[in-house]
Amino acid sequence: MPRLPAPPLPKILQPKPKRPGEPQDVGALSPVEGALTATDWIDERTSLSPTVRWLFFRKVPRGTNWAYTLGSATLFAFLSQAVTGVFLAMYYRPDVAGGAYESIRNINDNVFAGQLVHGMHKWGASVMIILIFLHMGRVFFYGAYKYPRELTWVIGVVLLILTLVMGFSGYLLPFDQRSYWATIVGVNINGTGPFIGPFLSDFLRGGPEFGATTLSRFYSIHMLLVPGAMIALIGVHLYLVSKLGTTAPPWLKPDHEDPVLELDQAEV
Amino acid sequence: MPDRRRAPKSKYTLDRDIPGAFEGETITRRRLMVGAANGAGGVAAAAFTLPALAFALAPVFKTQNMPWQAVGPPSDFPNDNYVVRVITLLQGIGEAGKSIAYVRTRNSSLDTEPEDQYNRWIALSSRCAHLGCPVRWVDAAERFICPCHGGVYNIRGQVAGGPPVRPLDRFYTRLNSATGMVEIGPRYSVNTEFQRFSPRDPAEPIDGVGQYLYPARWSTNSLPK
Question: Complex ipTM, two decimals?
Answer without folding.
Answer: 0.85
